[in-house]
Specification:
- The complex is a heterodimer of chains A (115) and B (116).
- Chain A is an all-beta fold and 115 residues long.
- Chain A has no helices and nine strands.
- Chain A has a five-stranded mixed beta sheet with strand order 1-9-8-3-4, with no helix packed on it. A four-stranded antiparallel beta sheet of chain A has the order 2-7-6-5, with no helix packed on it.
- Chain A is globular, with a radius of gyration of 14 Å.
- In chain A, 34% of the residues are buried.
- The chains are: A mainly beta (115), B mainly beta (116).
């Protein structure tokens, strides 16, 4: 699986948009971009994923560049509860199951939402 | 969304004893579950892939005889830390997905193991 690069930490003011970047310059054509977050002392939580089109759900938006070498997770109106470590992961999605679907976590970005 | 439950959430055990951690998928069947370990201020480290009805697949450097994994049913995987030592103290987390593509993984709340 391709490696990702994220800034170690970011600050965001409450109520403002949080834009979290991720670089995945070696991504393969069949690899998806996934975003998870982990609030302190809890299990990770799925946020969103995409292949090449921009995606939006109730939690966030995912913007993937045309060359797919980088992406940005956008939390439109950050709240204090969004303070967490955000992980960007690239991986293929295959129905074969087993270890092929494992998620390898990098160091992520600690987003601190300030009041 | 789907629910993955771990039990216990916290456990303290004496050095040399064994501890079993359960991971259950409450509202879906999971042929594959993953076990992770997380040390303070570090990221999640994948330990092993738990496969229903067959042997687990361990990541490089993870001792399979120390971390026994049993995936006896489609809703339950267990991780047993055998002969635990203080260096095994960590946060253990499991994950599972209701779809074979595993596009959306659900994680348990984690188990904080402290070996004294």
């Amino acid at each position: 699986d391709a490696k990702t690069t994220q800034p170690p930490s970011m600050d965001c003011a409450e109520g403002r948009a949080a834009n979290l970047p991720c670089n995945h310059s070696t991504i393969s054509g069949n690899e998806y971009v996934y975003w998870y977050r982990q609030i302190h002392s809890q299990g990770p939580q799925y946020i969103i994923h995409g292949l090449k089109n921009n995606e939006t759900n109730e939690m966030a938006s995912l913007i993937i560049t045309e060359d797919r070498k980088s992406s940005t997770l956008i939390l439109p109106h950050a709240t204090l509860r969004d303070t967490a470590v955000y992980y960007c992961i690239v991986r293929v999605a295959t129905p074969e199951g087993g270890a092929t679907n494992k998620l390898i976590f990098g160091t992520g970005t600690l987003l601190a939402v300030q009041p | 969304g789907a629910v993955v439950s771990q039990h216990p959430s916290r456990v303290i055990c004496k050095s040399g004893t064994s501890v079993k951690i359960e991971c259950r998928s409450l509202d879906f069947q999971a042929t594959t579950m993953f076990w992770y370990r997380q040390f303070p201020k570090q990221s999640l480290m994948l330990m092993a892939t738990s496969n229903e009805g067959s042997k687990a697949t361990y990541e490089q450097g993870v001792e399979k005889d120390k971390f026994l994994i049993n995936h006896a049913s489609l809703t339950l995987s267990t991780l047993t830390v055998t002969s635990a030592h203080p260096e095994d103290s960590s946060f253990y987390i499991c994950s599972a997905s209701p779809n074979p593509f595993f596009t959306e993984a659900f994680f348990g709340q984690g188990t904080r193991l402290t070996v004294v």
